[in-house]
Design a protein that fits this description.
By secondary structure, this protein is α/β, with parallel strands linked by helices. Helices cover about 40% and strands about 15% of the residues. Helix 4 packs across helix 5.
Length: about 300
């Protein structure tokens, strides 16, 4: 399958369980099915049960075994539709929308969303070149404050800090943080930005002072003085990331819990970083095949 996936192709190619099962098998074992226990290639097919039996050790297993699909009673075609909708929607898809689309309960749709989301983890490759960094505040209720300082203070106290860094023309990294203080910001940037990055551009927030080193310069624009762009120095790219994420929250999710916010950030970053990938559906399914099972109890446990 080389062409980019779209909804029509999805319906045509994966309208039955046999087609979905065969495709997952191809993704999981491109060189032929091997036993999950002893890795023997001597496999017999139990076609009626959609399982395999190892000729060497007798172990029986399915293509779902040991993956995020394990123990799911949903037909694979519903998994495929949900995966396509989630990975292709720039602003995400809510559990309520999946509930209506797939004809399942809200609990099933919510759990399905989170299992797919859990496989969409952010990459760990370091950002290079020109990097923009910024912070935003998510959640809570922001009251109407005439005084700018009162408004900013309320925002800090009542919302969750999210730090972001993006390589111009490249990928984004997002992380929930306990605060936006200097040590926290510097630790985040050290984790996601290469020592050899050319420059880091930020606003004038004092937490970014001192992030430069002999390899990477730091320049900033002063928004409080109405300075938004100075030559190549600006934070427009990372601010566009926040804008897109905000539209997803407002338009699709409406509100996010602090507990699950890291997972939503991973989903958004994965989709954003694959914005030019014509094989996003396939690559997302590959992630699902490789991901560990996610028990419902783990999602609903108190933090």
């Amino acid at each position: 399958m080389t062409a980019a996936m779209n909804l029509i192709k999805l319906v045509e190619q994966f309208s039955n369980e046999d087609a979905c099962h065969a495709y997952l098998e191809e993704l999981r074992w491109p060189d032929g099915v091997k036993c999950l226990r002893c890795e023997s290639p001597k496999i017999a097919r139990l076609a009626k049960r959609k399982q395999y039996e190892c000729g060497a050790c007798g172990y029986q297993f399915s293509v779902r075994a040991g993956t995020i699909f394990h123990d799911s009673h949903l037909p694979l075609w519903k998994w495929f539709v949900a995966t396509y909708l989630i990975c292709e929607a720039k602003k995400g898809v809510s559990a309520n929308q999946l509930k209506r689309t797939l004809g399942v309960s809200y609990k099933t749709a919510w759990y399905l969303c989170h299992r797919i989301r859990s496989a969409m983890t952010q990459d760990d490759a370091l950002l290079t070149g020109i990097v923009e960094a910024d912070e935003t505040y998510v959640g809570g209720k922001l009251g109407g404050f005439k005084d700018r300082k009162d408004s900013a203070r309320h925002r800090r106290e009542n919302k969750t800090v999210v730090l972001g860094a993006i390589e111009r023309g490249g990928q984004v990294r997002l992380r929930v943080a306990p605060n936006a203080k200097g040590p926290t910001v510097k630790k985040f940037l050290a984790d996601v930005v290469s020592d050899n990055a050319e420059a880091i551009y930020t606003d004038s927030h004092k937490s970014y002072r001192g992030i430069a080193d002999k390899n990477t310069r730091h320049e900033y624009v002063d928004h409080s003085a109405d300075e938004w762009v100075r030559g190549a120095v600006h934070t427009n790219t990372v601010e566009s990331v926040w804008s897109l994420f905000d539209r997803g929250v407002i338009g699709s999710y409406h509100k996010l819990s602090k507990k699950h916010l890291p997972a939503y950030l991973d989903e958004f970053a994965f989709r954003f970083n694959n914005r030019g990938n014509p094989h996003l559906f396939r690559d997302t399914l590959l992630r699902l095949v490789d991901a560990d099972a996610l028990p419902y109890s783990a999602l609903t446990a108190h933090s």
